[in-house]
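Why this split exists: single-chain examples teach little about how molecules sit against one another. For that reason, every record in the complexes split bundles all components of an assembly together and asks for one structure covering all of them. Below is a record exactly as it appears in the raw files.
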Amino acid sequence: MTAPLRVALLGCGTVGSAVLRLLDEQADDLAARIGRPVEVAGVAVRRPDRHPEVPAHLLTTDAQALVTRDDVDLVVEVIGGIEPARTLMLAAFAAGKSVVSANKALLADDGVALHAAAAEAGVDLYYEAAVAGAIPMLRPLRESLAGDQLRRVVGIVNGTTNYILSRMAETGAGFAEALAEATDLGYAEADPTADVDGFDAAAKAAILASLAFHTAVTASDVYREGISAVTALDVARAAEIGCTVKLLAICERVANGAGDSVAVRVHPAMIPTTHPLAAVGGSFNAVFVEAEAAGELMFYGRGAGGEPTASAVLGDLVAVARNRVAGVAGPGITTYAELPARPIAETPTRYHVSLDVADKPGVLATVAQEFARQGVSIATVRQDGHGDAATLVIVTHSAPDAALSATITALREMPAVRGVTSVLRVEGLS
Amino acid sequence: MTAPLRVALLGCGTVGSAVLRLLDEQADDLAARIGRPVEVAGVAVRRPDRHPEVPAHLLTTDAQALVTRDDVDLVVEVIGGIEPARTLMLAAFAAGKSVVSANKALLADDGVALHAAAAEAGVDLYYEAAVAGAIPMLRPLRESLAGDQLRRVVGIVNGTTNYILSRMAETGAGFAEALAEATDLGYAEADPTADVDGFDAAAKAAILASLAFHTAVTASDVYREGISAVTALDVARAAEIGCTVKLLAICERVANGAGDSVAVRVHPAMIPTTHPLAAVGGSFNAVFVEAEAAGELMFYGRGAGGEPTASAVLGDLVAVARNRVAGVAGPGITTYAELPARPIAETPTRYHVSLDVADKPGVLATVAQEFARQGVSIATVRQDGHGDAATLVIVTHSAPDAALSATITALREMPAVRGVTSVLRVEGLS
């Protein structure tokens, strides 16, 4: 067998150490699949003393020197964050080395420039692990569906929030209580902001949208609402209309007069329990795709964790290694479509609204009139009287999000409305 | 833009005509994604007069001449069947042209030789459409999971049988009645043998197993049972134990003393309604994958139909076209593992058995003794007495299939057993 391909590993946390272990355990298989053995050239970490499991001669704190070393062929970046990951990646490309990354934040911020740098150097940049962990999702979007037109990509791409919302549905708990449980069990980090406020999902949405619509989409183009405002009542109301609450990353191609645009948003929403995404519980992830010719597709699996993420990293590593052996680079991304980003205000959505109102004649008419005045058409109303009060549960048809939120604002100020008790968008209803 | 890539289309039935239409409708997008426009060079059909939708100058009956023409760059084969598809494919490779195929029968029979011919010619052979229609499944197995060890691949890969079994479950109908309905609605062909007897699923199982286990598996290695013997009682019994009946294509890596082997089988089985595959209804397909590092994954979507299949064909076409533009060939398949095929007799399975017995003391003991004598351990027994008779419903633990079928044979001959009324394998129970 020919000389080994040598890999520089940047970062050795949960994912990095799983990558190291699998590279060792599966060495024979990887060599047979690639056509050359794979060997670890070095592991860059901040504190070498914290990695007794790694042979000392492999450890280094000088990541920059490691990625440009002549005896390194491929780079695996699992540090995360923007810097120093970005600088290291660019240094690797400049030195002619392909990079496999799991870095959603960096790719969502700067994917186009990084791809351009890789293409200029004639090397590969793959990052299957950055979105939906072990689920093969980016390669299908980049390659398998490259002959189709995508309409929508809707994903449950954050396991922490999915666990919290699943527990709220199962136990009736409020957000704070479910978050505390998730933290205790290690499903939520000590600072859960990135997950709970939707930053993690927004980065993944930007990556999915870029690939799905051949358009440069960054995290700043993504409308984002987290789950901290989701109440036990929202979850109960969802169940009453045959729905469940999920934090969704939604990437849509929206047709309008002047030409299509791309709307990308992350927010909690009610979806029907019959929707394939509704059954995705706990820390699992899934991505639902609607394409013109292929129709509906779904991809399901583990979205996080050392081993599942390492599986995706190693799949990419085999791909870039095969390309290296063949002396080629794989196809990059295309952003030729350059579709404009559609602001949330102009994006069509549907709302569920629960109101406490006075139970007297004419209230429903007054409320309905307000929806009509804002151009919002009502799909269903349920009125439950109790004493002198009543609850109105309204699900709207699709309307520009701004019209819906203006309606809610107006409702809050109506004398007949005692309180707006639950407002949540609804997705996937026919 | 540079000169177009020219495509020869072999066959113009449901899939072929959808491919033609999409090539036309999406010409601009395909050109942008590939870097060169794609043009149809010719369409080979048996009866040109039956294709008024195809421009006359493109039609030809001489497929052999078409695939070797100098002005053809890529070949799309959607004729199906072994010959003349095989000869045409080899001719295309010899002439230096990559091939995209939807031909499961041919790939299941002769995939290794065809890949070898493609590799020798330095061209590509892709066939995503051959298994599970629009669902990106083969590329994830070949590439995304190339760094992982697969344990099992379990698929619902035949829409006709899944429709029939779904209807049996919904309506309580027997097989013949549900088949007649499927035929009326166009979900089953006039001669439904290939679907109903599991030949179609077995070909797909062979392809999945080959890719999953890096081992040459052909359709003749696949144990095959169709669904024509599934009764309304089987379906009812399944529901009683919280299961549903599906025709499964199961590809497993089985560990044993002498080394691992690969067991590939297609048969109806009861699976728990909580299993992700249980919810796959009607004509949908899904493939469930268990990998060492990735854990559980599922891929879901439309398994047949002109447009969904054409989506998969065009995805492959973009891939081989990009390779052609780059002057490279993608990675082929590897069969280095050469795992032996494990016969069904030695493959561990679990059975559900329903027996009509005399309701008298000692019968359960006698029956249980027979299981024990064959080395089969019982997981659960339910006994329902009615008058002087009783029904025994038994679910076994896992045992070699031969021991289970020997047990059934022995039970049929026991005086205390009035009848063995339902026998079906069980999968996915914990």
